[in-house]
Amino acid sequence: MSTNGDVKKKLEPQALMRRVKVAARTAKKSAKAVIATKHTLAPPVEIEPRPVDVLALRALQKERRRLLEELRRQEMLAQDRPTTGNHMADDASEVEAQAKSLALRRHLEGMIKEIDRAIARAEKGMYGICERCKNPIAEERLKVMPAATLCIECAKLQTRPMKVATAV
């Protein structure tokens, strides 16, 4: 007489095999699609650095100063808030405001780091060049995202979500 646990043990390997087969078929289809469309990332290519773009460097430094000023302003606002209230709702509102302020400060600090990296690339003559395909990054993209390191095509390939096969 078999128990419920025995049935489960027999089904687990079968279910696992079905999932592996589905994943293998999906991978095979994906590989064929990549070969057919030739949408793969190009291998990195070494290129010579360009002369320093003084206008781009100045714009990056101006953006860095703006971000630093905004960070200082956020820190001043955080110091001006009272630390405790007379009611639990006041305390909860204060905690929520502190959490938002902290998240904004961390975001600003991350943006400053990205701008610093972009300034370093500009000083090396590599600003505005895609780190993956080595093609120039569109001016419109650099205006919107001054710290962009990838062209639009490479960014799309990098951020495209992968489909996960599920067993039916």
Structural class: mainly alpha
The residue ranges in which pLDDT falls below 50 over 5 or more consecutive positions are none
Average pLDDT reading:
78
Query: From the coordinates shown, what is the CATH architecture of the largest domain?
Result: Up-down Bundle
User: What general form does the structure show?
Assistant: flat
> How many β-strands, per DSSP?
0
CATH homolog superfamily of the largest domain: DksA, coiled-coil domain
Task: Kindly report the oligomeric state of this protein.
Answer: single chain
Give the tally of structural domains. 2
SSE string, helices as H and strands as E: HHHHH
- Biggest pleated-sheet summary: none
The percent of residues in helical segments reads 55-70%
What proportion of the residues form beta strands (DSSP E)? under 5%
Looking at CATH, which topology of the largest domain would you report?
Four Helix Bundle (Hemerythrin (Met), subunit A)
What does the radius of gyration come to? 26 Å
Terminal CA distance reads 29 Å
CATH class of the largest domain: Mainly Alpha
Helix tally equals: 5
